[in-house]
């Protein structure tokens, strides 16, 4: 509400009340103070309401922790409806226990706009949560405007581990009739930028630069940081999404409960993720368990020889130089 309107309304209201009750100057002052406080509270309520009506877009390069980020964002945003605490009797009804995170947060490009259909999004609960692998520059323009109501969270993972994770994943999907896909070949394609959604450095830098320019709209997280300190990262994520944890929630351990529910160890062992096949209907030969491999930071050391390390390190140095983004 603009302040001039607020002031005009306040003084009209006060004059009106004063006429009826013959307020003293001190009472009038007190009345003004109360109205000021109330209008401030209204403003705050409106802001938090607006934040909650934002669309949330979770952006990643494939194999950077998309499944994890989907689970965490869903659990944070829906924690009133679905508490994550194991001591809460409702925890057993949590959708993450019976659905793969990909079934709870749809991809814009594979699901929402698949088959050239105009989607009906009217039934989605607010805030709507979507995911995408689309690079920043190719996102729909309305998401990039300065007054957009879209909040973008980008989860970035060290390129070394992302490549290993992708290669292992693609090998599982590859039909047996095709020749084997060697690691040398995968590294060559990765370094040439010949992968889905474009070169990894452009993808990462696109979101990184935007997070520096518009930090209220784009949050840049790193997989490795989340592994190291999930609690701080979840606090930052929840605050950014407009669903900050209260002091009471922190005291009750809600952050740790969400971290535990969405952890690799927990999700991997759920029946839906061990034997389900439905999460990525758009991929042939897909099984949910392919999404949960090792989830280790630094697994790449088991695959790269020294000259391969040098090749990717040099490329990263060249591409990320001066950007402030490092791994
Ligand atoms: P690895 O292949 O290194 O094990 P995406 O979800 O984008 O497809 O990324 C998959 C990677 O994230 C895999 O890495 C997978 O094991 C890891 N992952 C899946 N669930 C996770 C979780 N809850 N926490 C951390 N990492 C997870």
From TrEMBL:
Its EC number is 2.8.2.-. InterPro entries: P-loop_NTPase, Sulfotransferase_dom. Belongs to the sulfotransferase 1 family. Pfam families: Sulfotransfer_1 (PF00685). The lineage of its organism: Eukaryota, Viridiplantae, Streptophyta, Embryophyta, Tracheophyta. Residues 1-23 are annotated as: Disordered. Residues 1-15 have a biased composition (Low complexity). The keyword Transferase applies. Residues 55-324 form the Sulfotransferase domain. The keyword Phosphoprotein does not apply. This is Sulfotransferase. It is an enzyme of class 2 (transferase). Keywords: Transferase.
């Amino acid at each position: 509400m603009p302040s001039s309107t607020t002031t005009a309304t306040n003084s009209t209201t006060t004059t009106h009340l004063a006429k009826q009750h013959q307020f003293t100057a001190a009472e009038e002052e007190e009345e003004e103070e109360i109205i000021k406080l109330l209008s401030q509270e209204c403003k705050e309520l409106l802001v938090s309401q607006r934040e909650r009506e934002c669309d949330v877009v979770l952006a990643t390069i494939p194999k950077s922790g998309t499944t994890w980020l989907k689970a965490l964002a869903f659990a944070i945003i829906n924690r009133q409806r679905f508490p994550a605490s194991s001591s809460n009797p409702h925890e057993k009804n949590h959708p993450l226990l019976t659905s793969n995170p990909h079934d709870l947060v749809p991809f814009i490009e594979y699901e929402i706009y698949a088959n050239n259909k105009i989607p009906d999004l009217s039934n989605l609960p607010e805030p709507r949560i979507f995911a995408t692998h689309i690079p920043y520059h190719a996102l729909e323009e309305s998401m990039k405007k300065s007054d957009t109501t879209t909040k973008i969270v980008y989860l970035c993972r060290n390129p070394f581990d992302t490549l290993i994770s992708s290669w292992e994943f693609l090998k599982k999907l590859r039909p047996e009739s095709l020749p084997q896909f060697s690691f040398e070949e995968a590294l060559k394609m990765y370094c040439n930028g010949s992968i889905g959604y474009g070169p990894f450095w452009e993808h990462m830098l696109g979101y990184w630069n935007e997070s520096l320019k518009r930090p209220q709209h784009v949050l840049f997280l790193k997989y490795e940081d989340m592994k190291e300190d999930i609690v701080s990262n979840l606090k930052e994520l929840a605050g950014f999404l407009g669903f900050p944890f209260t002091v009471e929630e922190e005291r009750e351990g809600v952050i740790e409960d969400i971290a535990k529910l969405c952890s690799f160890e927990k999700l991997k062992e759920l029946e839906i993720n061990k034997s389900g096949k439905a999460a990525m209907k758009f991929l042939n030969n897909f099984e949910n368990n392919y999404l949960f491999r090792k989830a280790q930071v630094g697994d790449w050391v088991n695959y790269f020889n020294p000259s391969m390390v040098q090749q990717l390190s040099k490329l990263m140095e060249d591409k990320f130089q001066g950007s402030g983004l490092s791994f």
